[in-house]
Amino acid sequence: MLKYVTVTGTLKCLTGLRIGGSSGIVEIGGLDNPIIRDPLTEEPYIPGSSLKGKIRSLLELDQGKISKNGGPCDCGECDICLLFGTSAATETDQGPTRLIFRDCFLKEKSRDQLKKLQEKEGLNLTEVKTEVNINRWKAKSLSGPRQMERVPAGAEFEFRVDLRLLNEADQKNKDNYIKLLERGFDLLQQDALGGSGSRGYGRIYLVDLKYQLSD
After folding, report:
1. What residues pair up with 149 in beta bridges, in sequence order?
2. Cα(53)–Cα(58) distance, rounded to whole angstroms?
3. Predicted structure pTM score
4. Residue 167 φ/ψ, nearest 5 degrees
5. Would you say 204 and 11 are in contact if contact means Cβ atoms under 8 Å apart?
6. Which are the contacts of 87, defined by CB distance < 8 A and separation ≥ 6?
7. Comparing 118-127, 152-161, 171-180, 193-202, which segment has the lowest mean pLDDT?
8. DSSP letter at 105?
């Protein structure tokens, strides 16, 4: 019988978060590094693919599972492959990917706060950070300033991951799967989500995580 363990909570941005998007149009004086947005509401969101890819890569680094070509582990035998999936070219009898990372959308409180910022500063629910590349010897700019769009620190998103238990083996190993997933959560909070993590972007914290097993 198919069952699910649903993990829900809040993803809070402790520093500005940047997951790049594309404006499709380059305007003179316009923002050249926009973030990804919901095309219907134009609100920033966090794609589930960004969370899945980052957590998987951190777990692979943690367990020494990076493939020789630098890509994701494709052994088809370890729990990382079982939970996160393998490429179509890999022969495996493990079945479908067990983890489903949902897109994370703004919580209502954060949406209201960012709309107030929009009214006050004229920004579209985000902040713009200007960065400059400096010549170390002359203390002068090597290139013109870059405008980086970010979700401001303090913004909160709805967080959800579903763990599929496809068979009896999955149900027996449920606790081990959850332990591995929680290790990924811990690593993510120590590292960074999105771009420019080495410059302070993308520090996040997962709050009020709850686990529910379906009937």
Report:
1. 128
2. 9
3. 0.85
4. -155, 180
5. yes
6. 74
7. 118-127
8. E
Token pair for residue 75?
């052994």
Q: Residue 6: is it exposed, middle or buried by C-beta count within 10 angstroms (0-12/13-18/19+)?
A: middle
Look at 73 and 93; give whichever has higher pLDDT.
Answer: 73
Mean pLDDT of the chain: 84
* Kind plus residue range of the DSSP H or E element containing 10: strand 3-13
CA 59/CA 36 separation, integer angstroms: 25
What is the residue-wise DSSP string for the chain?
--EEEEEEEEEEESS-B--B---S---TTS-SBPBPB-TTT--BEE-HHHHHHHHHHHHHHHHT---TTSS----SSSHHHHHH---TTS--SS-S-SEEEPPEEB-HHHHHHHHHHHHHH--SSSEEEEE-PBPTTT-SBSS--EEEEEBPTT-EEEEEEEEEE-SHHHHHTHHHHHHHHHHHHHHHHHS-SSS-GGGTTT-EEEEEEEEEE--
Question: How far apart are the C-alpha atoms of 84 and 116, rounded to whole Å?
Answer: 39
